[in-house]
Design brief:
The chain is built from 12 helices and 10 strands. By secondary structure, it is α/β, with parallel strands linked by helices. Strands 1-6-5-4 form a 4-stranded mixed beta sheet, with helices on both faces. Strands 2-3 form a two-stranded parallel ribbon. β2, α5 and β3 form a beta-alpha-beta unit. α2 packs antiparallel against α7, α4 crosses α6 and α10 packs across α12. It is globular and about 65 Å long. The N and C termini lie far apart (about 50 Å).
Length: about 400
């Protein structure tokens, strides 16, 4: 078995076989001198809407802007977002004037908004985040807006809006940044096009300047033709990991498109050190829940033990088109050997203990270092990174970098 490094993500394996087509698409844009608001963008919008099973797609320059455009078009005034997600979800919504409330998650990482007893008003509508490419549970009621940045290949429910990201590492990624919103509502689609500021005219006092450029659209059109194959590859990789980890109880439950393949382990930093020593990349998505960060959301004094547990234990393993079976097996073997082959029941107990210790250490350190926390002032905690690209972590889990105290 080869001991060559296994990067966490290697885009060249997907780009290599289609490089000639990508180059030709970029050359065509340069030769036409059409760089914005051209035929490639229009064509990609039509093709992406069809792929998603919706009637309209409106492109923009990022997934964050996609959330802002969708929330503005919907006149969304309040929303609930799970604490274990990327901060950008809860940044894009407030830019549309949305009051965002952070909620806890259950043992499986799904949102668990509090149930308000009468006569209190119900929680704000949930904006589900399809983290890692995990699909909504069948019993979950449909929402008006979804953050589908990780869920390329998912078909949104009728009448729902879905915000997509084409960040380079996404399952369908541009060679820069890009985003889109899909919808079945023609009027909402036109409102979002006006909000994008496409023709340099004032169409809406709330509008942004947020456009996808022609070269990104042209590249995405090339890559879209291969997306079904790439999704299938990711699901095959996920299934192979699932089989390898079946007795360990560390893999996530429920159907997934596997934009990321994540596990939950009690000794995450130790496992990362083991993987790094063997030349295997890994990354944390994400290590600090939103209720412990200072941002444009309501979370002051919030207690979210489920999100604390989740963010203390989740780890992403290599999962991308071109990852070979022998590489998957090397990753799985390294994980299994580090965990000592322990059964799923013991792993679950250790996860609970690790999560409780993590939350207790944070609370103690906050009281010692920043007394203002007791009065509700948010504190941002992050762990030091040795290498931002590899995602390798080091340092004391409670060593802080704080917002103004």
């Amino acid at each position: 078995m080869s001991d060559a490094p296994i990067p966490f993500c290697d885009l060249s394996r997907a780009h290599g076989p289609i490089r000639a087509d990508i180059d030709a698409a970029i050359r065509a844009c340069i030769d036409s001198s059409a760089f914005l608001r051209g035929p490639q963008t229009q064509a990609f919008e039509e093709e992406w809407a069809a792929f998603c099973g919706q009637r309209h797609a409106v492109t923009c320059n990022s997934g964050t802007d996609a959330l802002t455009l969708a929330a503005t078009a919907l006149n969304l005034r309040a929303a609930t977002v799970p604490s274990n997600t990327l901060p950008l979800t809860a940044i894009g919504l407030p830019r549309a004037g949305v009051t965002v409330t952070i909620c806890d998650v259950d043992d499986d990482g799904w949102p668990a908004p509090p149930v308000a007893p009468a006569p209190h008003p119900p929680p704000a509508p949930l904006v589900p985040v399809l983290l890692y490419g995990r699909l909504p549970r069948p019993a979950e009621p449909a929402s008006a807006l979804y953050d589908a940045a990780h869920a390329h290949g998912w078909k949104p429910p009728p009448r729902a809006l879905a915000a997509w990201s084409f960040y380079p590492t996404k399952t369908l990624g541009a060679l820069g940044d890009g985003g889109a919103v899909t919808t079945d509502d023609a009027a909402l689609a036109q409102t979002m096009r006006d909000l994008c500021g496409r023709d340099d005219q004032l169409r809406d006092r709330r509008q942004l300047t947020s456009r996808m450029d022609e070269m990104q659209a042209a590249v995405l059109r090339v890559k879209l033709r291969h997306l079904p194959e790439w999704i299938a590859m990711r699901q095959q990789i996920g299934a192979r990991y699932d089989r390898a980890f079946a007795q360990l109880g560390i893999n996530l439950r429920g159907p997934s498109l596997h934009h990321l393949y994540c596990i939950r382990v009690p000794d995450r930093e130790g496992l990362q050190r083991t993987l790094t020593a063997r030349g295997i990349g890994s990354k944390v998505h994400w290590e600090m829940p939103l209720h412990r960060q200072e941002g444009p959301w309501q979370a002051s004094g919030a207690t979210c033990p489920g999100a604390d547990a989740w963010c203390a234990s989740v780890l992403s393993l290599p999962c991308y088109p071109g990852l070979r079976e022998d590489e998957i097996d090397r990753v799985a073997a390294a994980v299994g050997e580090h965990l000592g082959g322990g059964g799923g029941r013991q792993i679950a107990v250790e996860l609970a203990l690790a999560a409780g210790q993590f939350a207790a250490e944070l609370a103690l350190a906050e009281r010692q270092i920043c007394p203002a926390r007791a009065s509700g002032t948010p504190v941002v905690w992050i762990r030091h990174r040795d290498n931002a690209d590899s995602g390798a972590l080091s340092g004391n889990p409670t060593e802080p970098i704080m917002a103004p105290c």
